[in-house]
Amino acid sequence: MNMESPGFIFINACIINNFIFSYFLGICPFLGVSGKWETASRMGIAVTFVMIISSTCAYGINLLLTWLDVQFLQLICYIVVIASTVQLVEMFMKKYSPALFRALGIFLPLITTNCAILAVALFQTNRQYNILQSIVFAIGGGLGFTLALVIMSGIREELELSKVPPMIKGAALTLIIAGILSLGFMGFAGLGGGG
Amino acid sequence: MNEPIYSASAKHENFDCLVRGLWKENPVLVSLLGCCPTLAVSNSVINAVSMGLATTFVLICSSALISMLRRFIPKEVRIGTFIVIIATFVTVADYLIQAISLEIHKALGAFLALIVVNCIILGRAEAFASKNTIAKSILDAIGSGIGFTLAIVCMGTIREILGNGSFAGIDLFGPSFEPWVIMILPCGGFFIFGTLMLGANIVNTRQRAKAKLGA
User: Fold this and answer.
1) How far apart are CA B130 and CA B133, in angstroms?
2) What's the pLDDT at A2?
3) If you measure CA to CA, which chain A residue comes closest to B205?
4) In chain B, which residues have their Cβ closer than 8 Å to the Cβ of A165?
5) In CA terms, which of A33, A88, B65, B190 is 20 to 30 Å from B196?
6) How far is residue B122's CA from residue B78's CA, in Å, rounded to a whole number?
7) Which residues of A are less than 8 Å from B80 in CB distance?
8) ipTM exceeds 0.90, yes or no
9) How many angstroms separate the Cα of B161 from the Cα of each of B149, B164, B167?
10) Cα distance between residue A79 and residue A89, in whole Å
11) Rg (CA), chain A
């Protein structure tokens, strides 16, 4: 059993090994919805929410699968849980915030195929986190994802006002900025004594 | 010669299915799908090749099966069905690679399992395989798979040469070469991918301008 403290796991998932800037997980929504501050932050919160629920469920499922000795079904079970959680969030949002539902558009169902969420479930199984560690890991990862989206959306909103060559507009520019941000996040690497 | 049933246009269409994924609709460089593995496992050529091949394998198998079952899958639950089919083949690929080379399996790590959420596969299933015949879907899957492999190997080559001074583990420049470590680190992935995309944009814009002049 892994005995890392929850605080360390949180900082590690959120900043040192940020899902976007050091693991490259969830790049599609990162490029897609980081255009506006508001959508970016809400998307981040939706992802964090799905992450927490699916990570908790994944913990239970893993116990069950280990007990039944059918670990090869792990991947299939995880993805089904994630898909249903996303469906739940979608229905919830449609009812309580239709405007946000429209703003997120196609990216809401696409949370299902957001690598970051499946990765949380897989990493916590690989690293044998207990239930508390798993939840903290999911919260940290989700907040780190939100942080990255919000930083990027701030930069992109400013960029809208400046003049850039048409060739580099769009994804290419976003990626190069992400590279610079990732360079900055590398500075945190020593924080946890390697990680 | 072996397929006299096909008319010339049908043959052309099949060929188009195959070639389209390579450049014109390259899943990574043009449609921006499957960026996560492209960035994450392109730090060496060997990783990139194995990732590309694994993804192509899953893509071909799942496209074929989905195309076979396209009349039986109810429309409401199609995405769920597709994902379960894809997850099955990813599990197969995962265990297959573990059996072939434990070393590669370790290097790819969680990203092997994460092929499930590679948008290219679900995208091709939804946009093509669920509407077309088996043969065409397989051709389309091969095209997209090779397009993905090309893009990821291209990234892997650049990053390994710059960051490690080697190609597929073979030393290229000798001991006097100071490796550009940043290229193997995450930020190098973003830089190279951004630059590649810039290159693809420039080529495509020029072509479009030329086509306009011609017309």
Assistant:
1) 9
2) 56
3) A167
4) none
5) A33
6) 11
7) 80, 83
8) no
9) 18, 6, 6
10) 15
11) 17
